[in-house]
Every structure is written in structure tokens, then in C-alpha cells.
Amino acid sequence: MKDFIIPDRDYGTPASRAKTMVTLTIDGFDVTVPEGTSIMRAAAELGIQVPKLCATDSVDAFGSCRLCLVEIEGRNGTPASCTTPVAAGIKVQTQNAKLEKLRKGVMELYISDHPLDCLTCSANGDCELQDMAGAVGLRDVRYEAIDTHFKAKDNSGKANPQWNPKDDSNPYFTYDPAKCIVCSRCVRACEEVQGTFALTISGRGFDSRVSAGLKSDTFLTSDCVSCGACVAACPTATLQEKSVIELGTPQRSVITTCAYCGVGCQFKAELRGDELVRMTPYKHGKANRGHSCVKGRFAYGYASHKDRILSPMIRDSIADPWKEVSWAEAMEFASNRMKGLIETHGRHSVGVITSSRCTNEEAYLVQKLTRAVFQNNNTDTCARVCHSPTGYGLGQTLGTSAGTQDFDSVEHTDVVIVIGANPASGHPVFASRLKKRLRQGAKLIVIDPRRTEMVESAHIKAAHHLALTPGTNVAIVTALAHVIVTEGLFNEGFIRNRCDWDEFQDYAEFVSQPKNSPESVQLLTGVKAEEVRAAARLFARGGNGSIYYGLGVTEHSQGSTTVIGIANLAMMTGNIGRPGVGVNPLRGQNNVQGSCDMGSFPHELPGYRHVKGEAVRDIFEKIWGVKIDDEPGLRIPNMLDAAVEGTFKGLYCQGEDILQSDPDTKHVAAGLAAMECVIVHDLFLNETANYAHVFLPGSTFLEKDGTFTNAERRINRVRKVMSPRQGYADWEVTMMFANAMGAGWTYTHPSQIMDEIALTTPSFAGVSYEKLETLGSVQWPCNEKAPEGTPLMHVDGFVRGKGKFINTEYIATDERTGPRFPLLLTTGRILSQYNVGAQTRRTANVVWHAEDVLEIHPSDAEVRGIKDGDWVKLASRSGETTLHAQITDRVLPGVVYTTFHHPDTQANVITTDYSDWATNCPEYKVTAVQVGSSNGPTEWQQDYNAQATLSRRILPAAE
Amino acid sequence: MSHDAHTKLVYMANQIAKFMESKPHDEGLTGLSSHINDFWEPRMRKHLFEVLDAGGQGLRPLVLEAADMIRRPMAA
Question: Which residues are A657's β-sheet partners?
């Protein structure tokens, strides 16, 4: 729909990328545009809006509405300006008596089959059809509406077979065929922008209809992924957000950043008063370029969900019910407890967990709390359980702990390896951009045990799917390197220039060993050697090669080793330092990059600088006025071990649900239960809060100012859209607590925290809120050398100097299948839900995924007598749980798969405490299990639920 | 409890050793010791030294060899 708040101009057709420029004249004005630009767009550049209905600049020109006609001197007829490209020297007229008459005629026909209920229409004030009727000066309609699509009954009172009822099956938007002008913008958006191809035009001529899936389908039962691209593209009320139907058109908007995955899409939060009417993807958002997914666009209802806790609460023991108290009382209680613990057990007995869902400024303050106030380095973040191996592996090989590219880079790639990631579910907007490139001809190699949506879906098919046995990433990646080295496919010039040639020789000797050949590892990985060889050749010789990876790489005993192997592959093929290539970790949470940048890890201060460095400590000691501990602190699993052992007693945990998201739930529960002061700072009484003594209510991303840093190192502004419902932004709550501990902090706005970050952290030296206002966003490093940020890293040399090749010896995980546990469980995400589901489970997204199910191959199911939909027991050495089975050949025989979005399932009761050798990142992706029939929830699930119910009791506030 | 803690740390140290064993010997040795120095909190190193001082049972040879280069935590 047209933008009526901040006019993001619609240029009608997409920009041309041509370098050659062409000058033409439109309505007497000269304009110079790239070759291939449409006349419509060239006119828009001049500020001349040619009337249009079927054109919008998010999709290719279609030329169906015939409203954008123009005349070109010396040419016959009245061509459509959207489909006619510019030519040098032509003279175009966009308005004259002939064109006016033609346009009126076109509009008259449109209006003759459209209801004239503008006043009560949900698109009133936001309808391009309405606008165009005005723009062309339509004053009367000569045709009587006899045969129509919009009247439920014809003129004789009989049911009109052409009329179709509204489809409101989707929880977030409606499809009203009566309002449709069949401009095909929705169909094209679904194809070109989203890449799902769920929509089509069925029928021909007067029978043409927008149709989702088959005739028997509704929007909900079709392939529609509810990304909202069609709704954004629709010029009328045909596809309309239910929130707009209910609340009316918004009247102001605030540009902010999505708080779901690491893509970091920018949105316009559109409001009426302080009521959020809708979120629409921001066209100038550099990560998403105007696209969105079902989570960011629609799943924001959790912010106003009844489960949100709005008052601080305390209790003496976790067996007690909660007592609601004032902020002051909560702070006094919490700080007294923490001070007592520090006094009795020493300053190392307490720590913090920063949140990858909160802002950079908030993560910075939480780590500052432990370093400057508690005076230890016991800080960690949920990156521990997702991308800590990325930090280690890329730091060792390339020199920085971050992806090398921007998301735009995918538009220039020729061969893509996607390994251990399913962007179609986890990073949907990136997946749409990738699929667009694949439809243009780029080749794809998927390395994943499961046949994900990326392997094959509408109009895309991977050239190679290496369906490996879970836990054998290192073997496959090393085998790819083996082929590249032994077949001489490596880029010698690049390696000699940018890496250490002698070091490469050692590495080459290592990978060339016969044990690393695809033929040798075939038995381990289950992937045919020929397939591995073909994939390696394609990657090495196919042009710009890029690698995108996710938690299927990192969450293994050898997670760090695989990351190193990936960096090796990129370096040996020279795929670093220009558009279209690179090593790209797909970050799980909105600000997991940022929380790592901000010094959330126990061994490093902000900017990835180890605490052992005296010069680095000195910078912070001067500003903070305290002595900083020079020893690394405890990581999350180490904190829990120390708690069980009795030396770790108190934890401040912001926006992270370790009990649900960390492995081996029983061990986490034991660790938490052993602590004497657990402070949970969150939106909801999450699972961890069952073991908390203090609950500090949190604020949502809509309620505070700050910044998030996405997977491409892009620092995006988060803007306060409405006041915090519980009174304070999270940074204010942390400051209140720190001050109760005696810190004396005096920040009055997050911009001051960013100024402190810039002052202390070289890669952020040039970042300020002012600059973010001017540029929209910047990618770090942003400093004197790169005042506008750094879209591509390692362009002229690696950050560490020479790129370092490191041997990647495959070592099998100790988590092995055997007679008792013969299957391998691997875990992942689904599109509609996000992580532990705390947010998305509290939205209508549950219609797509109401519970976690166990995917199992038909042959494994058959031998166990399991039918589709059966209630099954899933057991590992660590524990057991129950869930429903789904029989599918997306998983290989011997492999089962589930998601971890629902606390009832407790998938992490099953996962073990094996972890990455370098970072202790848990091995979520491989657990030996057995599956059998079951009658219902296990004893553990029942006990757990009973404990959770008891623990969530809240006493009425005392007067 | 302490037995469990030791088992876990021995396992972790050996995991690091297995990675470092694929490097040239000296590089692996420094790699292992500096990894533990850089990432292991003093409590964890203290437990590791309890095992080492008792003869280092269960630890891979590279860990035993690197012991001198691992920083012994100061008494808390």
C-alpha cells in the first residue's frame, strides 16, 4: 500500500544497475538515468508521478493496468511507461488531452467492477485505486454494474456465482476478492520478493482471481508463509492487515529494528496515538530492503500479552509464592542479598548473563555491572550456546569475530554453500534474498542432515545436497578442502598474497592425507564421495563463492573446528574481500553480534580484547575508576558447575531463559537451585524464573531507545515507539540495581552509553546516535579509517595480518549411538516460532506450530510401530520427554529431528552436556536417542509442570 | 562433587589437547596452555592442578607436558 506517513516514494519500477547513463526529456525536463530504467521511474526521478496501478518498485514491471500510458515523440501509440525503457534523446509526454481521456476510460472500467463503499472501506485513506480515480479526474461512471465480482447477489436477488466471500483464515490479514482489481502485485511480490510462489491468478479474463494454492485451499492451508509482502504490495483493501481493519489507519510512524533474528530488518512501527497499528518493512532498511517475515511483521502481540509481568517481585525462597513490591523495595532486597553473598563468599561468587535480545547499550551496562561493580569477569551471554565457536574460529583464522560481508553481497554471489543452517526458517528475509539470486542462476550446495526448504522448493533446487550424518561436519569440510588441494583448484595467487604460503604448505599436506579424502570419510558421513568431489569443484571453480552457516555448524563438540574449516575453504579459494563471497555466520538472535561486541564474554572486554591485556584494562580502569580483574571469568556452564560445587551463589540474568535454552535441563536446574540469589530480568515469568528470588520486569524493543547489531555487523537504531508498560527501559533497571549496589551511574539516555562505548572501543570509535540519524545505520569497524563504517571486511588484508590456515582433524563426538540409543537427534527452528518461543508462543503464530513434533523417517517409524501423529517417548542418556511424531522422509533413516520452541516438550532434557572443545558451546545438534510408543507426558514433564505452577504463584500486593 | 568436577575438567582438557595434537608439536603445546590460561577461570585451573598434582591421571600426554606453562591460580 502507498506510504502516507513518511513518504517513501514509490518509483514504480526497480532501479537499474547499469553503469551507462542515458539522457532523455520528460515533459520538457532533461533527466539522466542508468540504461534500462523505465520511463516511469525516470519521470519519478524528476518528481513526475505517472498514474499507475499495477506497478510498484518492489517488483518488475508488468504492464497490465494501462493507466501509465505516455506519448513519445516520433513513436506510434501510447506505450506503458512502466515497461518501456528509456532511450537517449527521446522526448516523452506524460500528460495531454489524449492521455487524460485514455486514462479516464481505463479508470472507468476498473471502477465499474469495484464497490463504491469508500467511506466504510478499511483502506479508506490508504487506497491507490481511490487516489488514481482522483488523479485522473474520474467524475462519473457510465457503465451500470450488472455482472460484477463484488455483489453477493445479482440484480434479481439470486446468489452471484462470481462473488467469493472474504478469506480471513490467516490470523493477521484478510483477502477480500470483492475489492480485487487483479493487478497481480500480490502474486508478483510472492514470487519476486518472497520467493514462495504461493499465489497465482486462476482463471482467465473476467474469471481471473487471485488464488492461494489450490481451489480448495485458503490462505492458511496454502504454501503462504505470511511474510506480508502481498499485503504491502496490494493497492486496495483486498489484502489488508486485520489490525488496520480493527483500529483504522495509522497516523504516525517510527523507524525501528526488529527484535527477532540476526538479519536485523528495519520496520516502520505505525501508530495511532500510542497504539501500534501495524509494523511494515522499511524500504530503506539495508538488511531487508523492504521485505519482512511473519515474525517481524506480525508477531508483536506479545508486547501487550496478559502474561507480561509489570511489577517487580521478590521472595525469600523459591518454594514461596512471589510478592509484588515497589521498584525501590525490589532493588533494596536484591542488592542486600548480592552484597551479603559477596561479603560471605567473595567477589567471584556472583555474576551476570547479558541478553542477546536487549540493546548494545543494555548488554554493555550488564557486563559493566559485573566488571566494575561486582569486580569480577563472570559475564556470559546466550552466544555461549550458539555462536561462541564463530568468535573463536574466525578470530583465529581471519582476525575478527564476525561475518565478512553485508547482506547485499548475496546479489553478487555465484556459488553458495549453506551449511548447518536453514535460512528459510531461521533467517527468512535473507533466504528470500538468496532465493532471488538462485533464480537468477547462482548455484547452491546445501550441507545438512535434513532435506530443508533450501534443498528444494519453488523454482530453486540445490545443485548438491550433502546429507551428512549429524556430527561429521569437520569430516565433510576437510574432505572438500582435500579435493580442492589435491586437484589443484586452490587460488595460489590469493594464498601467496594474503596468507602465509609456508603455513598453507603444512595445511595442504594435512588435508591431502588419504584419510581426509571423500572416499575415506564416506563411511562416517554417509555422503557419496562423488557428490563431495563435485561440490568441491563447483565451489572452487564456480565464480564468486560464499559460505553461509548457522548453528548446525557451531553446536557440536567440534563446532570451532568446523568454523576454522569454513574459513580455510574461503581463504584457499580466494573468496574473501569482495562482494559476492565471504564467510557469513547467520546469527540467531537480533543482537547476538552486539552482545558479543559489547564484552559479554568472560575473557574479553568490549571490542574482543582479552582481559589479560594491561593496556586494555587501563582504558576501562581510568573511566570506571575501578581495578579490573585480569583473570577470565566463568562461562555459563562453568557458572552452573561452580554453583553445584558451592562457590557460585548469585546471578543477575537479563533477557535469557537458560533453564529452557541451555542443554541438560536437569543440570541447569540443579545449578540454579543451588544459588542463593537469582535475579531474573525479563518480560515474562520464564522457566529460569522458577528458580529466581527477584523478578525485575523488562521492557520490549518497542519501549526503549538503543541499538542492535545484526549478523552483518550493522548497527541499527532501536527507537522508543511507546512508553515502557512497567515504567522503565531495561538499561534504567540495570542502572537502578547497579546504583543500589553503590555504582553511582548517571546515564540519562542510551546515547550516552554509546558515547562511552565509542570512547573505549576502537571498532566503535566513530559511532554516535547523531551519525546513526544521518546515515541510517553503520557497519563496524566505524572509526577514523572508516568514518561511514565497513560493509566488507578483509578487503586489502586480513585483520590479523596474514590469514591463518589451521589443521582441522576430525574427532568423532563421544555422543555415540549404540543398542540402547540407536538414533541421532538433531534440533532446529521453524519459521513461525522463535527460539524458546517466549515471544512467538504469545502471538497468533501458534496457528502454524502449536507444539514441537518429532520428525522421524518412515522406516524408523515402521520398525517401532509408530504412526503419524502418535504420542512418542524420546529418551537419551540425560533424560526423556514425550511429544507427537511426524513421519517424513525429510530426515534420513537413523536421524530424528525436533524444534525447541515449547517448554512443555523440554527438548533440552534430552540433550547432553557435551560441548565444543574451545568454547563449551553445547552439542545440541547430536544426541543419541531412542524413540518408542508412549501414553502421554513423562514423570519428569509432570513433575516439572507441577514445580513450575507452584513457583509461578503470585501473592496479591500488600497494601 | 569434586570428583565429578575433576572428571569434567579432565575431559575438557583432553578435548583441547586432541585439537592441538594435529598442530606441529611446539605450536600445539603453546596453543593448549594459552587456551587454558585465556579461557579457564582460576577455579577451573585450580581443579586441573589438583589432578595434575596428584599425578595427572586420565590426562593426555600433551596436557601433562603443557602443565608447566599453565598459570597456577593464586590461592583465593
Answer: none
Contacts of A645 in chain B (CB under 8 A): 1-2, 5
Q: Which residues of B touch A632 (CB under 8 A)?
A: 38-41
**Residue A554 to residue A563: CA distance in whole angstroms:** 7
Closest by Cα among A558, A586, A553 to A447: A553
Cβ contact, residue pair B16, A918, below 8 Å:
yes
SS3 label, residue A601:
coil
Whether B22 and A641 lie within 8 Å, measured CB to CB: no
Q: In this predicted structure, what is the pLDDT of residue A588?
A: 83
Residues of chain A positioned with their CB less than 8 A from the CB of B22: 510, 807-809
Show the cell assigned to A720: 522508543
Q: Has residue B6 been placed in a domain?
A: yes
Q: Tell me whether residue B76 is in a domain.
A: no
Question: Is this complex scored with an ipTM above 0.90?
Answer: yes
Enumerate residues 6+ apart whose C-beta is below 8 A from B33.
B66, B69, B70
Flag whether pLDDT at A590 surpasses 60.
yes
Residue A428 near chain B (CB below 8 Å) = no
Cβ distance of A918 and B19 shorter than 8 Å: yes
Following DSSP, what letter does each residue of A545-569 receive, concatenated? EEEEE-HHHHSSTTHHHHHHHHHHH
Q: Looking at the domain assignment, is residue B74 inside a domain?
A: no
Mean pLDDT computed over A672-680: 97
- What is the pLDDT, as a whole number, of residue B75? 61
Best mutation target among B41, B43, B63, B72 (most A Cβ atoms within 10 Å) is B41
CA distances from A799 to A162, A277, A701, A781, A791 (A): 65, 45, 33, 11, 14
User: Partners of A801 in the beta sheet?
Assistant: A798
- Residue B38, domain extent: 2-69
For A327-344, what is each residue's pLDDT tens digit?
A: 999 999 999 999 999 999
Chain B CB contacts of A646 below 8 Å: 1
Q: For chain B, say whether A346 makes contact (Cβ under 8 Å).
A: yes
Please name the residue that has the C-alpha cell 522503565: A728
Residues 6+ apart with CB under 8 A from A905: A851, A852, A881, A883, A898
Residue A786 has pLDDT above 90, yes or no: yes
* Contact across the interface for B23 and A561, Cβ inside 8 Å: no
Burial code of A913-941, b = ≥16 C-beta within 10 A, e = fewer? bbbbbbbbbbbbbbbbbbbeebeebbebb
CB proximity B41 to A under 8 Å: yes
Q: Which residues of chain B are within 8 Å of residue A805 when distances are taken between CB atoms?
A: none
CB contact under 8 A, A638 and B41: yes
Q: How far apart are the CA of B66 and the nearest CA of chain A, in angstroms?
A: 16
Report the mean per-residue pLDDT for chain A: 93
Alpha helices in A887-934 (DSSP H): none
What per-residue confidence (pLDDT) applies to B2?
A: 59
> A647 CB near a chain B CB, below 8 Å?
yes
Q: Count of alpha carbons within 13 Å of A697, Cβ hemisphere only?
A: 20
What's the domain count of chain B?
A: 1
In three-state secondary structure terms, A274 is coil
Which three-class secondary structure string do you get for B35-75? HHHHHCCHHHHHHHHHHHHCCCCCCCHHHHHHHHHCCCCCC
In chain A the domains, ranked by start, together with CATH numbers, are: 21-135 (3.10.20.740), 345-385+591-779 (3.40.50.740), 388-585 (3.40.228.10), 823-951 (2.40.40.20)
Note the Cα A245 to chain centre separation in Å.
28
The alpha-carbon gap from B45 to the nearest alpha carbon of chain A, in Å, equals 11
The yes-or-no verdict on residue A849 having pLDDT over 80 is yes
Question: CA A761, CA A781: separation in Å to the nearest integer?
Answer: 10
- Cβ contact B35–A918 (<8 Å): yes
User: Looking at the domain assignment, is residue B38 inside a domain?
Assistant: yes
Instruction: Report the gap between the CA of B55 and the closest CA in chain A (Å).
Output: 23
